[in-house]
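To assess whether the prediction recovers the assembly geometry, we first specified each molecular entity separately, as shown.
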Amino acid sequence: MLFKNVLLGVFVCFSVLGCSDQKLDSKPSVVIWHWMTDRDVTFQELAKKYETLTGVKVNFELYAPSDAYSQKIRAAAQGMNLPDVFGILGEKRDFASFIKAGHILDLAPYMEANNSSWKNSFFPKALALNEFTPDNSYGINPGVFGVPIDIMTIQMVYNKKLFTQLGLNPNRPPKSLKEFLDIGPKIQAAGMQGLVSGWGEVWMIDCLANNYAFNIMGKDKVLATIRGEVAYTDPDWIEVFSVFKQMKDSGILAQGLVTMINKSAEQLLANEKAVFGFNGSWCVNVYKGMNPGLEYGAMLPPQASEKYPTSIWGGAGSSFMVNARSKNKEEAVKFLIWLTDQDQQAYLAQATNNLPANKNSLSKIPEVMAQFARGMDYATHPNVWGVSEFSLVIEAFDRGIQSIIIGEKTPEAVAKEVQAIKERELARKKAQ
Amino acid sequence: MKIKNTLENYIFILPAVVIFSIFYIIPFIWVFQLGLFDWDGISFTKVFVGLQNFKEIFFQDKNWWQSMWNAGYITLIALTFQNILAFMLAWACDREIKMKNFYRVIFFIPPVLSEVVVGMAWRFIINDIDGANVINRTLTQIGLPNLVHNWLSDPNTALSTVAVVHCWKGFGWGFLIFLAGLQTIPRELYEAARVDGASAWQSFKNITLPLMIPIMVLVVILTVLGTMQVFVLIVSLVGGEFAGHTSVPVLRILASMRGSSRFGYACAQGITFGLVLIIISFIQYRFSKKGQ
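The predicted structure of the complete assembly is given in tokenized form:
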């Protein structure tokens, strides 16, 4: 009986207390989902600092790896429960799909306020990745739909110590493709590995191939190809595919490159087993963690032609978007303005070795980071071209280059296969 | 009274039916429905294309059928090499041998390891430039230097290497199920056979094998279902599809869903793949029934 009474008493107490008024928090909190493991600690520190300054709590929630994060964001978009701020990993067409579905706030009015002071603080090319211009092919109303947190360029790196061992000048990396290929036999003779990169994950092959496409035929012809006006069987494209055959034949490529994951490639370069690497500017932080004493420099991919300038992929490294349906969107925008301010950007760059998106924060960064940052002058990105290639064509293109590297197909055969898929996709698009 | 009993029976199975419907039947129907649309997985608008996605899978998508062929090849290796090994080891451990409990534990370690860990570990063991190069060194030491090459990045050996690593990881499940099956065979049958003068081979052929057929069918079905869906191991061993040489259906579905943003097509691929697995399992089941 006593037990029953105690139980009843506890139930009544919980019921009454449970119904009592809760003290409402007057300040909203901003929830941010991200995937950047290397930046999480610094983000948390900045969030604490922001809370001290403004009283607004910012919760950075880490969901890694990036594949899992990407899935989570898509699922949240389908379920209409995206956080206040989030990032999108994928191509421009994915970004456009999120905007079309009304998930992303147009930040142009905020960017252009106060004589565009916020907009002008960024590297223009970094902002361009988040921008939709009036003539975009995605059918999106013009606007700025994301805030770059940092910038990145994808270039080549070379080991200066191994350069010296090979009898090469460590301060003069190869500038032409011929110079680059001539190093292949020396590397083989010395028993070293040549170029390493994450070419098992094919998008990095696509990246280097596009660099050479811009160099060999120029931007206009590349974009004309994407629009379907130039065939992949054009001699210029065959020359692009042939660059990879020449690399394979010269011995400049590391063994097993086509099944190499980027982490392995980074380890090989950091452990001084490989002479060249093809990697993004995020590698500065990775190499520092793996081998703080590594002597290396960044270089542009050696030119295959002098007709057109070299182009590399670059722009915004990571960007945050504001949920258009969030009730805290104003607070979210205020926080992003603060996060991309000069001081916070410099702090982020120093703590994480990522290049700052705010162009005024570049003053105190190490030389190798400055080399990567200077690459922004040559940077381009598929997301700013205004047109995008069919994903099945990109897949055939990348697979084809893998086949060339393993000696399975010729550049001409790959060009024919890619063009066949391109024609099929164009026909399908026309039929729709 | 009879109606009341029948209703009671239905009420008892109702929770199971509800759970099964919510988590299996409805998602299957929903995925099939999505397979009839052209949808990027994000937009609110979906374009109805009827059976166009299925038509493309069956008649145009060579990469899909190559991936099915690759998965079939790995499955064939698993069905033969992996299951024969599992059966032999289970049979050995079922007999009175020293340290049999130790072996049971050892054989069951690979299946409980994460596929990513197994993939990375084997990548390290196999690879030459970023690994220990154990296989090539062994080949050199035993006088077969002409066989030394890049096992994972040679298109002729990549899939077989993946299959062997998959077998190493998976044989413990078969071992465990076979061992459990062997232990259900009454010992008296063996004793009676011995009294009648049967040899070890005759006992195995006339007692062990016939009584183990239902267990073998179960292991075969589980092996087919598990192996056809392999993909994590491939990603950690070779980074992905390797110009199609290590492409498998789940990687193709992922490529359609994430790489191409063709969610509807990916759903159609998922349904096609599911139906293929159901048909294979049904055929195996019918064969086992006939065998019994």
